[in-house]
Design a protein that fits this description.
With 413 residues, this protein is an alpha+beta fold. The chain folds into four domains: 133 residues, conserved putative lor/sdh protein from methanococcus maripaludis s2 fold; 88 residues, Elongation Factor Tu (Ef-tu), domain 3, CATH 2.40.30.170; 63 residues, OB fold (Dihydrolipoamide Acetyltransferase, E2P); 76 residues, Helix Hairpins, CATH 1.10.287. It is built from five helices and 22 strands. The strands form five sheets. A six-stranded antiparallel barrel has the order 2-11-14-13-12-15. A four-stranded antiparallel β-sheet has the order 3-10-8-5, with no helix packed on it. The longest helix is centred in the first third of the chain and has 36 residues. The chain is rod-shaped. The two termini are 75 Å apart. The relative contact order is 0.18. The N terminus and C terminus are likely disordered. Belongs to the membrane fusion protein (MFP) (TC 8.A.1) family. Pfam families: BSH_RND. It comes from Gracilimonas mengyeensis. This is RND family efflux transporter, MFP subunit. GO terms for molecular function: efflux transmembrane transporter activity.
Length: 413
C-alpha cells in the first residue's frame, strides 16, 4: 500500500511538470529538445534595403590655396613710414598698401629734372651752332674740321640730353615706387613687415590671394593616383567640421609619380565653397572614383562576418578567408541567413551585388548570435537612409561616415 502511494505521487508530479512545460512554449521541454517551436524568440529590429547612389572614394588631406597668389615686393629700399592694410583686408588693384620714406627719392627727382632742363638748353645751343657752321662751310667761310667739331659737340649734347631724360624717368619711377601698390585685386594673406622696418628690394612685403578662385592639392599613392581622373567630382570637408564644406572637380594631375616620395599630385579646383573655406584651411578631399545609381545598399552594422582559417600546405602559411552575410526577417518570426557579394563601400554604406532582394527586411539590431532559422520577435523597425544633399551655404552638407578604419578593412578584403 505504501509503495503504491509513492508511485501514484511520482506519476502526478511528472504529469504536472509536463503540463507546465506545455503551457509555456518559450521554455521548451523534452519534446522540444534543441529548439523548434518552443525556442525562445530573439528580439530584433529590421530595416528596409536602401536603393540609391553610392560612390567608391579616395580620401586625402590638403590645404586650400588661392589659384593665383601674388607676392608684393618693394622696388626701392628705405624705412617704411606707413602701413595701410592688414591681414584679411580686401584690396583693389592699384590701391596703396604701404608708404616708404621718400625724401631721398624726392631730391633725386628734382635733380634729374634740373639736369634734363640744362641738357635741353645745351642741345638747343649746340644745334644752332652746328646749323650755323653748316652754312659757313657751304660759303667756304669755315673749315671742314670746324664743322666736324660743331657736329661732335651737338651729338654729345644730344646724348647727354637723352641720358638725362632716362635718369628722370628712373627717378620718377623710384619716387612713385615709394608708394607700394596692389598689383591685383584680392585679399591680403601675408604682411611680412611693419612700420619702421627697412624695406629692401627683393624682400617680400605682402602676399595677395586673388579672388579668382580656390584650389586644393593632394598627393596620392600610386593605386589611388591611377584611379583619379580629370573631371571627377570632389567633396571637401574642413578639418574642424563634420559636414561637407565645399565641392570641386579634379582639374589637373601630375603625369608621373614623384621619384622621392612615390606620390602623384592631384589638383582640385573648388567650384562651390562655404564660409569656412579660405586659403590655408586644411580640408579632407573626398574624390568620387566611381558612382553607381540605383544600387542596393545596406548599413555595415548589419553585416555578420565569418572568418575561416585556411592553411596553405605548399607555403606553410595561414590565411584568413572572410565572408559576409546578413539576416533577413521571414514572416516577422524567423531569421534567414543570406550570404552576400559586396561591391562599393562608402563609409558605413555598403553595396550588395548578390544575396538580397529589394523588398527584403534586413535585421540591423540583434543579429549577432543568430542562427539560420532562429525564432525572432521584430520590434519597431528603423529606417536606414543615405545622408541627404543639403546646401553648403546653410552650414549643412552631405556627410560621410567617420568609420574609415572599418570601411578600409572591409575594402581590402
Amino acid at each position: 500500500m505504501k509503495q503504491l502511494f509513492v508511485l501514484t505521487a511520482l506519476t502526478s508530479l511528472l504529469i504536472l511538470g509536463c503540463g507546465n512545460d506545455n503551457s509555456n512554449g518559450n521554455q521548451g521541454g523534452f519534446g522540444n529538445f534543441g529548439g523548434g517551436p518552443g525556442q525562445r524568440a530573439t528580439s530584433v529590429e529590421t530595416s528596409d534595403i536602401q536603393i540609391g547612389t553610392i560612390a567608391e572614394q579616395v580620401r586625402s588631406f590638403g590645404n586650400v590655396k588661392a589659384q593665383n597668389v601674388v607676392s608684393v615686393i618693394p622696388q626701392v629700399s628705405n624705412r617704411i613710414t606707413e602701413m595701410y592694410v592688414d591681414l584679411g583686408d580686401t584690396v583693389r588693384q592699384g590701391e596703396v598698401l604701404a608708404k616708404i620714406h621718400d625724401a631721398t627719392f624726392r631730391d633725386q627727382l628734382a635733380q634729374a629734372r634740373s639736369q634734363v632742363a640744362q641738357s635741353r638748353v645745351a642741345v638747343q645751343r649746340d644745334s644752332t651752332e652746328y646749323a650755323r657752321m653748316q652754312q659757313l662751310r657751304e660759303r667756304d667761310l669755315a673749315s671742314e674740321s670746324e664743322l666736324d667739331a660743331a657736329q661732335a659737340t651737338y651729338q654729345s649734347s644730344l646724348a647727354q640730353y637723352e641720358s638725362a631724360r632716362a635718369s628722370l624717368t628712373q627717378a620718377l619711377e623710384d619716387f612713385n615706387n615709394t608708394e607700394v601698390k596692389a598689383p591685383v585685386r584680392g585679399v591680403i594673406t601675408l604682411r611680412a613687415m611693419e612700420e619702421g622696418d627697412l624695406a629692401t628690394t627683393g624682400t617680400e612685403m605682402f602676399q595677395i590671394a586673388s579672388t579668382g578662385g580656390y584650389e586644393s592639392r593632394i598627393y596620392l599613392p600610386a593605386e589611388d593616383w591611377r584611379a583619379v581622373k580629370i573631371g571627377q567630382e570632389v567633396n571637401l570637408r574642413s578639418s574642424n567640421e563634420s559636414d561637407i564644406s565645399a565641392r570641386g572637380v579634379v582639374s589637373r594631375k601630375s603625369p608621373q609619380l614623384d621619384a622621392t616620395t612615390g606620390l602623384g599630385e592631384v589638383v582640385i579646383t573648388i567650384t562651390q565653397a562655404g564660409s569656412s573655406v579660405y586659403p590655408g584651411v586644411l580640408t579632407e578631399n573626398i574624390v568620387n572614383i566611381e558612382v553607381k545609381d540605383q544600387a542596393m545598399i545596406v548599413p555595415r552594422s548589419a553585416l555578420v562576418e565569418q572568418v575561416e582559417t585556411v592553411i596553405n600546405p605548399e607555403t606553410n602559411t595561414i590565411d584568413l578567408k572572410r565572408s559576409y552575410s546578413v539576416f533577413v526577417s521571414r514572416g516577422d518570426s524567423v531569421a534567414e541567413r543570406r550570404n552576400l557579394t559586396l561591391g562599393i563601400q562608402q563609409g558605413d554604406r555598403i553595396e550588395v551585388l548578390n544575396g538580397l532582394l529589394p523588398d527584403d527586411q534586413i535585421i540591423v539590431t540583434g543579429q549577432n548570435g543568430l542562427e539560420d532559422g532562429a525564432r525572432i520577435s521584430v520590434a519597431t523597425g528603423v529606417q536606414f537612409q543615405a545622408p541627404e544633399q543639403r546646401p553648403i551655404n546653410s552650414g549643412d552638407a552631405d556627410t560621410a561616415s567617420q568609420d574609415e578604419t572599418a570601411a578600409d578593412s572591409t575594402s581590402n578584403e
